[in-house]
Specification:
The protein is an all-alpha fold. Among the domains are: 20-147, no CATH class; 214-279. It has 7 helices and 2 strands. It has helices spanning 14-36, 68-73, 77-82, 88-108, 135-141, 149-190, 192-278, and strands at 61-62, 124-125. Strands 1-2 form a two-stranded parallel ribbon. The longest helix has 87 residues, at 192-278. The protein is elongated and about 160 Å long. The N and C termini lie far apart (157 Å). 7% of the residues are buried. Residues 226-274 form a coiled coil. Keywords: Coiled coil.
């Protein structure tokens, strides 16, 4: 029984890779245009209300201001339509936010949101900082919360310039270190007197090290002798205490024998007197 192939074989073509590359390039170009195009704002007349949409496209500016409503919960389109304080332009701007939110996540690497329809002059991406962010980084970010795109670009350019200056300074210090190393090695090779002094110093160092080792050995030996003397002293002390205890015991035994002899002498004298009385 023969089994037929249901899935046709896949043939790889070079044109597919070119097409994928063109798609990626086109997507990045559209993303760049969507994120970085600015708008022109026409102020309304003081007396005549303006019914024309004044904001064709949102202005995107980096502002690190936490907005719990935009970043955490979000606002639905029905809530925007029901709020009497929000006009048609703000609602259109909020709809533009949904189309640019995905591009903002691709650019900044984290979820972003706008500051709310009520803040027309401060429409921006909001960066949510992690709990592990260092205090030094937070202290540097806080003054930048009201910056716009141009001000942020100036800050970034200044930081990059400072970093380039530091790198250049480090490279100069590295070159100076290499030059000093070559100079020192060259002088060490050409200066015989310095070599002889170095050898004599090394010889003195070896001799001093030997003397130090010998003194350390003698010190250890003296310490060991001291420990042995202490052990011997302790042993003699114990023997003396034992001898004194034996001496006291012998003295007590002598006193007991003396008392017994005295009692026997008294008894013998009494018996002698009794015998004399009988005879």
């Amino acid at each position: 029984m023969e089994v037929e192939l249901v899935v046709p074989p896949i043939i790889y073509k070079e044109g597919d890779e070119v097409m994928a590359t063109n798609l990626r390039v086109g997507f990045k170009e559209r993303q760049r245009k969507c994120l970085f195009e600015s708008i022109t704002i026409i102020p309304p007349h003081a007396k005549k209300p303006c019914t024309k949409i004044l904001y064709p496209k949102p202005v995107l500016a980096i502002a690190l201001v936490p907005n719990p409503l935009a970043t955490t919960a979000g606002v639905s389109c029905s809530q925007l339509r029901g709020d009497s304080r929000i006009d048609e332009a703000d609602f259109l701007l909020y709809r533009e936010e949904d189309s640019c939110k995905q591009h903002g996540e691709t650019l900044f690497g984290h979820p972003t949101g706008l500051g709310g329809p009520g803040r027309r002059s401060n429409i921006s991406f909001v960066a949510r900082l992690l709990f592990s962010t260092l205090e030094s980084i937070v202290s540097r970010i806080l003054p930048m919360q009201d910056y716009r795109t141009i001000e942020m670009a100036e800050v970034v350019v200044a930081d990059v310039h400072n970093l380039m200056c530091r790198c250049a300074l480090l490279l100069k210090q590295l070159e100076a270190t290499k030059t000093m190393r070559v100079y020192i090695s060259h002088n060490m090779d050409d200066n015989e007197e310095l070599h002889s002094k170095l050898k004599s110093t090394e010889g003195e160092l070896v001799t001093t090290q030997k003397v130090v080792d010998e003194r350390v050995r003698l010190l250890r030996k003296t310490k060991q002798g001291k420990e042995a003397a202490e052990v011997e002293t302790y042993r003699l002390k114990e023997e003396r205490e034992a001898t004194e205890a034996k001496h006291k015991k012998v003295e007590k035994e002598n006193e007991r024998l003396k008392q017994e002899m005295e009692e026997l002498r008294v008894g013998f004298a009494a018996q002698k007197v009794e015998l004399k009385g009988e005879y």
